[in-house]
Design goal:
The protein is an alpha/beta fold and 357 residues long. The protein has 15 helices and eight strands.
Amino acid sequence: MPGTVLLLAAAPAGKGCLVDAASVLPVLAAVPPSVLSGTDTANVVELADPLEPQAVLTRLRAAAAAPGPLTVFVTGQLQLDRRQRLPHLALARTTPATVRYTGLPWHWIREELRLRPAGATTLLLDLHADAETWEWLRANALDCGRNTVVHGRIAPPPARREVAVPTYMKAVATLLRSGRRPPLDQLHQQALSRIADEAPGLVLTAPTAPPPQSPAVDDPHAAISAAVRSGRHPDADALAARHEHAALRAYGPGSESALHWAEVRADLAMFAGDPVRSCRTWLGVAAARLTAGQAADAPEVETAVDRAHHQWGQIRDPEAARELGPRLADLRSRVPGRRQGALDHVQRQLRQLQTQG
């Protein structure tokens, strides 16, 4: 089965830049796609100094939905937003004051990868942190999701007025240019040995092969992923529905367990090509989180509304779009999210739908 590779190099333009992230792309691009992915063939997508977080999200979402192994190479810098103090991958337009709107929230990466099969996703990271984020990392882990294999490093901020070089990722790329991809843990250690003369910072490593499940009864997520990969979308949803109902009975509608399974079902509807059901489910999740007292700018609330908005835009039946549009507009008025003009977009689309009448 072909693999998928996403090469992402991002850093702010101007004096806020801590690392010359894009300098690694020519070296990575010289590696055969099959070596980058560890498969016989692979599709490679390259993002160099992207401007918009939504554009990165779209590419990441498409890569995560592709069958087969996924390898994501990320080079760049981490910054915290001032409101929630959550890590973001800084993009070309990011400044300390605009991180929330111009950076890519790290939890978006985690969320897009969460339904992929265990062991089918690899993150290779060479990240630099500013001083504030470096202090945050002393007490907090960079969460990449439980099913994702992670190798790399996070370096502390370079000296003042200095732009760092992504030496770890360049070492990885140079090793791969030999035409051979060793096991990832060996590749990681070989890359670290090549930069042994510098302090690597925070070394990231996660299990290279999650233990196999015995046929997937112990891990319902693995069984659901297998059903999706084989096109058995009703079976996947039925299994998730059983777990959702069990969580509702045991913990109640506002519990994290019940909300998690509702989110899984919303994603499954998207994979099945049913944006109406996906949108409706995400709207329900967002409303339930707000009812449970979660803040309108909580990452989980924003994610639910953003995904409902995205799926609403995929609906081709005007009647269904008109039905769900007012609910989305109401939530957007309470949860404006990070994309400026999101509420205006919903209202404008609703007006156009009314004229189709």
